[in-house]
Structures are given as C-alpha cells and as structure tokens.
Write a structure and sequence with these properties.
alpha/beta; Rossmann fold; 5-stranded parallel β-sheet; 7 helices
Amino acid sequence: MRVLLDTDVLLDSLLQRPPWHAESDEILRRAAGSEVHLAVVSLTLANLFYVGRRIVGAERARAEVRRIVMTFDVLPVDRQTILDADALPGADFEVNIQIAATKSANLDAIVTRNTQDFSASTIPVWTPSELLGRLTSPTTIRR
C-alpha cells in the first residue's frame, strides 16, 4: 500500500502533539517495517521545517526533513502538478497540490487528520486511525 502523508500527520509526530502523535508514530514505525510505503509532496518538507524550527529548533527540524527525504518518496511540485491542482474544485490550493501530486504518482490514498479539507478528492482520504486499521486487516495488499 502506498499513501501520501499530509503535513499534519508528520507535525503530530515531530512535535509529539497529544493525542495524535501515537497514531502518527505508529504509522512511521509500520513504514520502517515495510508494512506501508509513504510519500510526501516536496512542499510538505518546507512546511514541516518552517513550523518545526519554531517549536523544536532548526537542528531537530532539519534532521526530521533529512530522515523523511531518505525514507519516503518525495513527490515533485512541477508545472503540471500546479496546473492540475488549479483545475481541481477544492478551495485550498495546498490541498489541491497534494491531491494532484498523489494522482500523478498513482498512490492508493491520502492520510490526514483533516479529512474535510480533502472533500473534493477523488482519491481515498483516510485518517491515521483508518490507515492503521487497514494495515492490521488480514486483507491488506502489500506492493
């Protein structure tokens, strides 16, 4: 299974935001064990660093960005991604960029705590809890 993680899921883990960090940490643990393949949009890395450096410091935020770059697929935001995002009906352009990049990469789903932000998505949108439930299901298909 290949999924895109929204910025909020990564921030929950980096900042250890209760109560959400437990599920985010578990997703990252499962990815390290090859139960799920994770991706992020390149824009997410900039946002993660920007928010993270103000709360946990630049060194730790930069280390987290490096870890993600080495272990996740990083989806580009190129001209076509922007054009595809602009054509989507959702009002949040950053969300539309993530949807367009996910479609382009042919991923299975988007994982976010803010599912309502992705209501215009034609790609399945799951909460961290829903993803974890699918990973523990005996019908999970691994790629």
